[in-house]
Design brief:
The protein has 17 helices and 16 strands. It is α/β, with parallel strands linked by helices. It folds into four domains: 81 residues, NAD(P)-binding Rossmann-like Domain (Rossmann fold); 58 residues; 114 residues, Cobalt-precorrin-4 Transmethylase, domain 1 (3-Layer(aba) Sandwich), CATH 3.40.1010; 129 residues, Tetrapyrrole methylase, C-terminal domain (Methyltransferase, Cobalt-precorrin-4 Transmethylase, Domain 2), CATH 3.30.950.
Length: 442
């Protein structure tokens, strides 16, 4: 790393900008915004010695000879100088700034790509709304109060995490400043050993880019994450550096943690004051036992937050270019699971009642499922199996209902796999290659 990142206090300090063009105007305005006393010297008026007494100089003259002279003068006098667009003649570089006073975020590419720095700034500005400024001030006020009360650092940290995970930013975003202040004060004065809470969070179908913004925030703030076996390593990498990960996933044919123990563990951690995320593939409330966990946690007196996820029932077909209710082809949809207590008679009823049938977790019982469906729908109904949907290793096999199990076995498709049955599969055949190409482009 060539540059040492630092924020300068330029309030009431003398600063000089050389030049009169667009860059000079922008640099002078930014320095004035920081509270500096700014003197602008047009290019034609620059003479050796003009920089004397300055704390900082920006040469935006865009004149090679003036650049050379100003650089030499500043170097001799020990003045910090930035010659615009000439990294070799810069003792400091001006980063792209996300300003949410008192929160400031500086972005630099060490001069490699100002465009990239600017693009990242734009992204962060969309993510960090204006509410982050007053929120930062509220956290600062809480910090001062906690220090005055002599609260230990470890307990302070727990309170800061609760402030970050609270609804205070949402209050500020809605203009409810007084409510936000009261909420921050209540959290700051609460016992740091008070009970924590649990968030039931959907991890989506696999690709971490399909996580909701709220899910990403909660993963970053969690003390403990209890996750399913199929949650990808890339998704778990979004957790905070101090987050403890516990694999409580259930996999067919392997020993797994009973549901009662998972709920007991979440309750135990929450009562100990931890913020817990229960991370489940897809959506927690679509064949994910989220409803059971919510019921039992509420009964145990645990505060619970629910964050829906993108269900594989929708995402897997979409990733394969299949529109489940394509106009003119299908107007109804049924979703079930291949594992669990679904009986053949009920499966047949679902298939007969809807234009399109989606069977989640179909891999382990694919032959039995398709055999049941053939009795109701016939062998020629179009079908598709999508394996590892939305992930780089995604594979799609299409065939008829009569031979889809054999084709999936021949292709070596592994779990997780989603079965789609209906005329929409045939209608989407021409789209699959295009969807794959678009995914690669992204």
């Amino acid at each position: 790393m060539r540059y040492y990142p630092v924020f300068l206090d330029l309030a009431n300090e003398p600063c000089i900008v050389l030049g009169e063009g667009k860059f000079a105007v922008e640099k002078a305005a930014a320095l004035r915004e920081a509270g500096a006393h700014v003197k602008v010297i047009p290019s034609r008026d620059y003479r050796h010695g003009a920089l004397a007494g300055a704390r900082l100089v920006v040469d935006a003259s865009e004149d090679a000879e003036i650049n050379r002279q100003s650089w030499e003068e500043a170097e001799a006098a020990g003045i910090l100088i930035n010659v615009v667009d000439r990294p070799a003649q810069c003792r400091f570089i001006a980063p792209a700034i996300v300003r949410r006073d008192p929160l400031l975020i500086a972005i630099s590419t060490e001069g490699e790509s100002p465009f990239l720095a600017s693009s990242l700034r734009a992204r962060l500005e969309r993510w960090l709304g204006r509410e982050w400024g007053p929120f930062t001030a509220l956290v600062g006020r809480s910090r001062r109060e906690l220090r005055e009360r002599g609260v230990p650092i470890a307990e302070q940290t727990k309170i800061y995490k609760r402030l970050l995970a609270s609804d205070i930013r949402k209050m500020l975003r809605g203009g409810n400043v007084t409510a936000a202040q009261h909420a921050a004060a209540a959290i700051s004065r609460a016992d740091a050993r008070a009970a924590g809470r649990v968030a039931l969070v959907g991890a989506g179908p696999g690709d971490p880019d399909l996580l909701t913004v709220r899910a990403r925030e909660l993963l970053a703030d969690a003390d403990v994450v209890l996750h399913d076996a199929l949650v990808s390593a890339e998704t778990l990498a979004l957790c905070g550096p101090d987050t403890r990960l516990e694999d409580v996933g259930k996999r067919g044919g392997r020993s797994s943690v009973p549901q009662s123990e998972i709920t007991a563990r979440m309750t135990e951690l929450a009562r100990a004051g931890h913020f817990v995320v229960r991370l489940k593939g897809g959506d927690p409330f679509v064949f994910g036992r989220g409803g059971e966990e919510l019921r039992d946690l509420v009964a145990a007196g645990v505060d619970v937050v629910v964050v829906p996820g993108v269900s594989a029932a929708i995402a897997a077909p979409a990733a394969a270019g299949i529109s489940l209710t394509m106009r003119g082809v299908a107007s109804s949809l049924a979703v079930t699971a291949g594992e669990g207590d679904v009986q053949p008679a009920r499966l047949g009823q679902l298939a007969a009642s809807a234009d399109t049938l989606v069977v989640l977790m179909a891999h382990g019982k694919l032959e039995a499922i398709t055999a049941t469906l053939v009795e109701v729908l016939g062998r020629d109904r179009p079908a598709a199996v999508i394996s590892s949907a939305t992930l780089p290793e995604q594979e799609v096999v299409t065939a008829t209902l009569g031979n889809i199990a054999e084709e999936a076995r021949r292709a070596g498709l592994g779990p997780p796999a989603t079965l789609v049955v209906g005329e929409v599969v045939a209608a989407a055949a021409a789209n699959h290659r295009q969807v794959v190409a678009l995914a690669s482009f992204g």
